């Protein structure tokens, strides 16, 4: 059945955004985000290709392997819809959606992992954990607010940017200097953690030591202990192994009568 | 050992429901970070009437697990299920409010939970692979329906994984609490000490991943600024942390200009 092709509007892009939130619902080791990508694209493709056969053929293209950083997938989704629109309207009949996805997913995946997981999330966690440990009850809200201002803003922004620019990743990098921002966020995280250690004498009651020594000595000892643990960690070990190691050390100290 | 009466069973089922729902945020839906320990811990503690246990567990596990990254096909430990279960064990193990040794012991129990969460994640991913395969095999009008079914099945799989693990971990953990209470006094003191030192372990875990230097100059900068503002001038902690963040920002910009 052939129907009239419709244009993609803001409403369609918002539906795409809503569906992109389920990009990893069927996440699996081999297929990664493939089904999620096709699920997000389905309404737009249905609108652009009223013919059932053509719709299915285009869906098959978008059921090819896909994996990237889930937030950066918005940019590729926007670009893919734009490309499908150009193709459906005859402006670019040979548009290669599979090629576009293949060329963008690896570099944007690496960039997104480094920015969101490797820099923004640790910075928000460092800020919120420091606030919580020093007694601010609102720290979880700070974490959610700080992270999601960037997350939702960029995720939505990149969808529209990808659609408007047709997948121009160079323009995206020029607009958002992700690498520089990631570097700054990492440095802020380190500085915040230094601040948290300095505030050790003022930590919540549960974390505070009971040894009667001056606050400056507690903070100094905390800093020395932190660097010592970092030096030990450089030899390797997972978080679980480190926790078990610390528990064993605490058992030995408590058995020897050491109380902090 | 706490009694497994109707109230306890209802609490465990309630926590399992909460764990299942916020566990979806971890991978399958949204990823708004509600599933992070710093949110999941206090939320679980608040629901069970022991915010302190949730705050202590959430803050420490956040620092320790935040850089266990889901990069590529690597599946990290499920910190959400561990945090929710650990908080529930502490809160339900001491209805009048968990004492510090019990909180420490509940955190230590997460080290036993981690391998099970990773195994369960592997099973969910295998089930999802079969769902995705059915989508590939579908054709015609069935394709759209198969895709929607696969999405729903994936969400159900992720929900059930977290919920069932909570149902498994919490009663087992409560049984271990009974054993823990019978241990000699030094074991209780060791767990108090464990809680007090855990934030330093968490700080070190992040510093190790973010910096190639063992004695990092930006950690020292933040420490110096905060020590001056907090210890000498007695500035409130949130302001001190703001100053530390500002010092980091200035340091980053200065380094960029120099290089």
The overall pLDDT of chain A, averaged over residues, is 90
Oligomer category: heterodimer
Structural class of chain B: mainly alpha
Global morphology of chain B? flat
Domain module tally of chain B:
2
Helical content of chain B, roughly? Answer: over 70%
Q: What is the rounded Rg of chain A?
A: 25 Å
Instruction: Give the overall shape of chain A, derived from the CA principal axes.
Output: elongated
Q: Alpha-carbon distance between the termini of chain B?
A: 61 Å
Counting DSSP E segments of at least 2 residues, the number of strands of chain B comes to 0
Rg measurement of chain B, Å: 22 Å
How many β-strand runs of chain A?
0
What structural category characterises the helix and strand content of chain A?
mainly alpha
Largest sheet of chain B: none
3D architecture notes:
The complex is a heterodimer of chains A (260) and B (259). By secondary structure, chain A is mainly α. Among the domains of chain A are: 10-106, no CATH class; 209-260. Chain A is built from ten helices and no strands. Chain A has helices at 10-20, 34-48, 52-61, 73-88, 97-133, 139-165, 169-175, 178-198, 215-233, 239-255. In chain A, helix 2 (34-48) runs antiparallel to helix 3, helix 4 (73-88) runs antiparallel to helix 5 and helix 5 packs antiparallel against helix 6 (139-165). Chain A is elongated, with a radius of gyration of 25 Å. Chain B has 259 residues and is an all-alpha fold. Chain B has two domains: 6-210, no CATH class; 213-259, no CATH class. Helix content of chain B is 78%, strand content 0%. Chain B has nine helices and no strands. In chain B, helix 3 (51-65) crosses helix 7 (185-210), helix 4 (79-93) runs antiparallel to helix 5 and helix 8 (217-232) packs antiparallel against helix 9. The longest helix of chain B is centred in the middle third of the chain and has 40 residues, at 142-181. At the A-B interface, helix 2, helix 3, helix 5, helix 6 and helix 8 of A face helix 2, helix 3, helix 5, helix 6 and helix 7 of B.
């Amino acid at each position: 059945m052939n129907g009239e092709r419709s244009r993609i509007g803001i409403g369609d892009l918002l539906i795409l955004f809503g569906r992109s939130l389920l990009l990893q619902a069927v996440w699996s080791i081999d297929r990664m985000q493939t089904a999620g990508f096709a699920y997000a694209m389905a309404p737009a493709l249905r609108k652009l290709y009223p013919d059932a056969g053509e719709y299915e053929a285009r869906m098959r293209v978008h059921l090819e392997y896909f994996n990237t950083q889930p937030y950066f997938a918005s940019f590729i989704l926007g670009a893919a819809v734009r490309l499908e629109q150009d193709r459906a309207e005859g402006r670019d009949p040979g548009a290669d959606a599979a090629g576009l996805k293949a060329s963008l997913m690896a570099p944007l995946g690496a960039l997104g992992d480094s920015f969101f997981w490797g820099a923004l999330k640790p910075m928000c966690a460092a800020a919120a954990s420091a606030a919580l440990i020093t007694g601010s009850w609102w720290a979880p809200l700070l974490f959610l607010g700080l992270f999601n201002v960037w997350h939702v803003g960029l995720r939505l922004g990149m969808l529209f940017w990808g659609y408007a620019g047709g997948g121009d990743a160079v323009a995206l990098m020029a607009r958002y200097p992700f690498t520089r921002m990631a570097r700054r966020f990492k440095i802020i995280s380190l500085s915040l953690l230094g601040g948290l250690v300095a505030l050790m004498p003022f930590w919540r009651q549960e974390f505070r030591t009971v040894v009667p020594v001056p606050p400056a000595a507690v903070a100094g000892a905390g800093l020395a202990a932190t660097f010592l643990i970092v030096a030990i960690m450089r030899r390797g070990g997972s978080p679980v192994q480190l926790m078990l190691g610390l528990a064993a050390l605490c058992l030995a100290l408590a058995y020897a009568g050491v109380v902090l | 050992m706490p009694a497994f009466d109707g109230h306890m069973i209802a609490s465990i089922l309630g926590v399992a429901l909460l764990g299942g729902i916020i566990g979806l945020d971890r991978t399958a839906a949204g990823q708004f970070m509600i599933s992070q320990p710093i949110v999941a811990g206090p939320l679980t503690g608040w629901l069970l009437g022991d915010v302190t246990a949730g705050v202590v567990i959430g803050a420490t596990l956040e620092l320790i697990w935040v850089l266990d990254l889901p990069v590529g096909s690597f599946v990290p430990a499920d910190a959400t299920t561990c945090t929710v279960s650990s908080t529930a064990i502490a809160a339900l193990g001491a209805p009048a409010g968990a004492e510090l040794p019990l909180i420490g012991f509940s955190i230590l129990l997460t080290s036993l939970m981690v391998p099970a969460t990773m195994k369960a994640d592997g099973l969910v991913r295998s089930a999802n692979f079969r769902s995705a395969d059915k989508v590939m095999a579908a054709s015609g009008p069935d394709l759209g329906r198969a895709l929607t079914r696969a999405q729903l099945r994936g969400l159900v799989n992720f929900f059930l994984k977290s919920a069932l693990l909570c149902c498994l971990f919490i009663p087992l953990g409560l049984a271990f609490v009974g054993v823990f209470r019978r241990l000699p006094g030094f074991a209780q003191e060791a767990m108090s000490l464990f809680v007090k030192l855990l934030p330093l372990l968490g700080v070190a875990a992040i510093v190790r991943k973010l910096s190639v230097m063992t004695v990092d100059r930006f950690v020292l900068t933040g420490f110096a600024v905060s020590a001056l503002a907090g210890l000498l001038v007695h500035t409130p902690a949130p302001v001190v942390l703001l100053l530390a963040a500002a010092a980091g920002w200035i340091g980053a910009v200065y380094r960029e200009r120099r290089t």
